[in-house]
Design goal:
The chain has 325 residues and is of the alpha/beta class. The protein contains eleven helices and twelve strands. The chain has a domain of 218 residues: 3-Layer(aba) Sandwich (Rossmann fold), CATH 3.40.50.
Length: 325
């Protein structure tokens, strides 16, 4: 129980999604009695009339805006216009309605994709404007940067209490495993498990194909840790500067593949498709501001988190596949 939340009405856009489910669960565990989760079938948040309708129904003190159109490199390349428009317009309309209604607090979730392509590693919040984002996901990253500008402008002109958080790549149980839109961790888990299963029915050598060279590095944050960071920031942070949420540790895609192969028990071959883009060469966040401002530090190690994710996914399959121990 946390006294901060007991009398708060909280609206979590995207609350039925991957990260949102963790945020909603933690809100209820903290004693929040009134959590409103709008569904896209009822509220098209790209439309001002629907946004106004949602505010009327939710009557929130706090908005935690998680709803977004997201995906991996393939989805970003296929939908640059949609990713730019949908992600920017939802935040623009939600924040402006919050201004009109004098909302107590608005929590905007950004993305690591907003950082410049050649930002120094580790990425510090002060480097956000020192270059253009990596091209494969620039429209998505720029849409989220627009919302940072709006948040700071509305705080300056209207006194609206908006905070802006920048999570690194997320993963964990309940992630999106759709091959058309999934990010790298669930995509690799699914590939390894499917190759392991199909090879047991044939005599052929097991193989998976992975985009790129495997040399780039990424940082991964368990969704449970991210949700904790979001709620700590909501409780304790009230400043205009953006804040990174991450672990501060990076891993190469090659090492990530090896880790997932070990956890899933897949011992076949890996074919690197170098005709596909690598994306940004390195990603690692400086997480000092989050720890200093609201005491956030990630708890779940990558191997432990991947094991949880694999076990959760296999439990949902019609014929569960045993993982290695």
């Amino acid at each position: 129980m946390n006294k901060y939340w007991v009398d708060k009405r909280v609206c979590v856009t995207g609350g039925a999604g991957f990260l949102g489910s963790y945020v909603v669960q933690k809100l209820r565990a903290r004693g929040c009695r009134d959590v409103f989760v709008p569904r896209s079938r009822d509220y098209d948040l790209r439309r001002r009339s629907a946004v106004s309708h949602m505010y009327d129904d939710a009557r929130p003190d706090i908005i935690i805006h998680l709803a977004a159109v997201v995906g991996g490199i393939g989805a970003n390349r296929a939908n640059p216009g949609r990713f730019l428009y949908d992600n920017s317009i939802m935040g623009l309309e939600l924040m402006d309605e919050a201004r009109e209604r004098r909302l107590a607090k608005f929590v905007q979730i950004g993305t690591i994709c907003s950082y410049p392509k050649f930002a120094p590693v580790p990425f510090r919040e002060t480097d956000l404007w020192n270059g253009y984002p990596e091209e494969t996901n620039a429209p998505y990253g720029i849409a989220k940067k627009v919302l940072l500008v709006q948040a700071q402008a509305y705080r300056q002109q209207y006194g609206l209490n908006i905070i802006y958080l920048l999570p690194v790549n997320l993963y964990g149980p309940g992630d999106n495993f759709d091959p058309e839109s999934s990010h790298v961790v669930p995509a690799l888990i699914r590939k390894c498990l499917e190759a392991k299963c199909s090879s047991s029915k044939s005599s052929g050598r097991r193989r998976i194909t992975v985009w790129g060279s495997g040399d780039p590095t990424r940082e991964f944050l368990h969704a449970d840790d991210c949700a904790e960071g979001i709620l700590l920031a909501t409780e304790r942070y009230d400043k205009p500067e953006p804040v990174n949420l991450g672990t501060g540790m990076e891993i190469s895609i090659k090492d990530l593949v090896s880790l997932i192969m070990r956890v899933t028990g897949f011992d076949g071959d890996v074919e690197w498709d170098c005709t596909k883009p690598d994306g940004q060469r390195r990603r690692r966040l400086d997480t000092a501001r989050a720890e200093a401002e609201f005491g956030f530090r990630a708890r779940i190690g990558l191997e432990e988190g991947i094991r949880q994710t694999v076990e959760s996914y296999t439990s949902m399959l019609a014929t569960p596949i045993a993982t290695s121990k």
